[in-house]
Amino acid sequence: MHKLNFLGIQSEHGLIFKAATYTLFANSEEAGIELALSSINEQSKSFLISQDPERFSVKSDKWPQLKKAQLFALDTSFFIENSTQFISQTIEELSYYSGFRGAHLIIHFSEDLANHFEAKLIKKLLHKTQSITERYNISLIFLFTGKTAQQKAPTFLAHSKLIDGVAHLNSHLMNHNLYFDFWRSDKGVVSQVSYQLFFEQPVSAELNVQNEANAEPVYQNLEQVFISKELLPSETKLPPHYLICDDNQSVAEHARENKAATVVLCASHDVKKTELAALCYELRNVCGPWLKIVIKNKDGVLRHHDECVFLTLGVNLILHTTTDISRLMSQVQALQGVKFVRTLPKDYKAVLAHAKGVEAKGYLTPNSFVDAVKLQREASLSTGISGVLVILDLIKGVEPIDALRLFSVKRNGDIFTANQSQVLLYLHACRENDVDNAIERLFRLAISEFFAAHSIFSQDLYIEQVCRELKHADDNKELEDFSMQLLESTVEQVPLAMSTSGRTAVVNDINRFPSRQPCKAHPLKFLENN
Questions:
Q1: Alpha-carbon distance 79 to 117, whole Å?
Q2: Domain check: are 329 and 461 in the same one?
Q3: CATH number at residue 96
Q4: Radius of gyration of the chain from Cα atoms?
């Protein structure tokens, strides 16, 4: 028997029976794939169909039972043209494979295909799968992934007599909540049960228990505000429900006794970010969802990267350096009665560790670049820190090494590599709107002099596809390693050398243009003929 094999899921939850059909929905394709893979075991034959089966196969190290499964590619055009007959024709073809009877089958539909599932198609599909699963005694899972795919769940739930279970997985940052709409078991039907999943090895789950203490609003001390005095200009007039505290620790002490109040903490050069993050996490854990936590970025020390971390750890609002006291009071008033509904991570230290990403910067070989991007994307998924992959197309005739020499990277996580005709640049903690400004800072000349165009990718699906293509090309020895050439051309490795020959002087310094001294005027001297 198969099941959603997470340590901690109770025996009557997540069991998968033969001659049964189940539907899983996941807003994150990455998390949805792992959820489906947990249902595979080594005792029975498993078949898997997807538009991109390689997205499953690359996880065989984490899910070794996948190595015994048979993977097939789903033809998108074939599905669109034959959607009503798709399941019948697919099962008929699979029936010729040894071990299909009594097997476990997973069919994955990504977001673009999920949009083709209209109500009539779903009804026909479920009627056919009911008879097919009984005929071949198979267990069948439909996996729908993507942000809009979950919109199809109500239609499947409307045909609950034709299906044995519906569950959806909501992923946000490091939090993955699996919710069973209904799920048939040997003891009856389970419904409205949820678990928090953890995909670190070993994969595990925790049953979510409704805390009735937080079920209703808490109005006690709702308007009370505790604010650090470091944020207030001298002689600031405040309403009577504002209490000025000496520092962040003093603010926190008052918050622990007033769990529905608002606290305004200070982020400055004198405050360690890790200590402030730990304090925010502890306040949210201890005080619950009705405490409003606001951080004022006093000295501009918090960047996009830091803001994402603090929001993940329970902060409601982060105010900009230029926010004056009147605007601060308006923002605080807007938060009154607001409940923090995001799931808090299990361990704040894990969030801080993920947020670091990679320490590499500058040029990396294609293989190292792919590995680093993967780690950066994991950090992005865990903390909400955005990152983008930029592909710059070289102008015809420009060699990759000439463009690579003109990049100057100072920030960890900003990495680049190249193929025969493109430079690939990954910018960590960068939004799409900031890409043009970032490239201008990283490249020493106008990019139009070296690149014909550039494309920006921020979605994991496309970034992963680009990385796979780059890795395949590198494995096939199609790409060049420019490490030595870049090392030889750096200012540190090649000192400025002047060579003169006749009336010419050559400056051998690729990274810096020669400075020109002002010319000195000399009077002209006329020579008289003898």
A1: 11
A2: no
A3: 3.40.50.300
A4: 30
CB atoms within 10 A of CB 342: 14
- β-partners of residue 227 are 244, 264
Q: What is the pLDDT of residue 56?
A: 92
* DSSP string across 201-263: SSPEEEE----GGGTS---TTTT-EEEEGGGS-TT----TTEEEESSHHHHHHHHHH-TTSEE
The token duo for 490 is 């750096």
Domain that holds residue 100: 2-209
pTM: 0.70
- Alpha helix (H) ranges present in 25-176? 29-37, 54-57, 76-81, 86-94, 111-114, 119-136, 153-157
Two tokens, residue 52:
């991109």
Same domain? For 396 and 362 the reply is yes
Same domain, 275 and 363: no
Distance in angstroms (rounded) separating the CA atoms of residues 326 and 99:
71
Asked if residue 27 and residue 151 are part of one domain, the reply reads yes
Residues of the chain under the 50 pLDDT cut: 211-218, 491-519, 524, 530
